[in-house]
Amino acid sequence: DNEPTPLSALPLHYYVAPQGDDANVGYTADAPFATIQHALDVVKAGDTIHLAPGDYMEDLITQVAGAPAAPITLVGPPDAILRGKGEMSTALRVRHDHYALVGFTIDGLHGDPSAPDGYTEKLLYVQGETPRRGVTGLRVYNMAFRNAGGECVRLRYFAQHNEIAYSTFDTCGLLDYTFDDGGKNGEAVYIGTSSNQWDDGKNATADPDESSYNWIHHNVMNTQGNECVDIKEGAYENIVEYNHCTGQLDPDSGGLGARGDRNIFRFNVVEGNMGVGVRLGGHKVDGVQYGRENQVYDNQLIGNRQGGIRVEVKEQGQ
Asked: Which domain holds residue 131?
């Protein structure tokens, strides 16, 4: 039992810098990779990717899962900025379990700021590909998200037990709210899949999207778009607490919204939004009424244009 751990099993640290070279070994800050994607291609569970300051014009996608006690970590300072490059609709697509994103910025502005196609549509897109099993164990800490064409962060398709905390969200939904694209997309954090989209072919199955047990806390959100947190039909038992929410521009929705069941909104400050502070209630689908038994308590709902709370489906919690 006292055999030493083989070196190949120890966690590795990889370094990335815009001025690096993917032909480098990547093990030191003096010989970094040039692209984050190359690091994502070679990491294993427990490894850490360190980002140097600078702009990263990449559309990233994860290739391997971390483990519960050995997540894969991407960490960098606020001036390490992932922007996307406009070839995919997402700047970072996480499709595997147990990743940690810490400290850096995802800013969707990669081109002409006066043109809709100058912005990446979705900054962080989390969606598993296994039937009825989504991404779990994602931790997002001290991140900055800004300038999304659509939603800033999406947790989609049975995404469960993920955490988004201590992060800032500024300007989500530029396509609809700045460039008048005609829709109402622009959430800071969007959990689940609208019942209208369950069968659109983008999820592994057409089931109700049971994204659940996600914890959204201690974030500062100024969307200049739509909801700070929007929880869709089928998504349940998510906790949204200690967030500051403002800048929502849709009079028909709210700063926070639940179309799913048994979600909790508490200890949030929701102020200065065009809609209500909190909106509850979802669609009725195949005889099932969604948007029930949510709890809303101990929030500060201040100066929201359409009022404090709008209940569109009875049978709510406290």
From this structure: 121-311
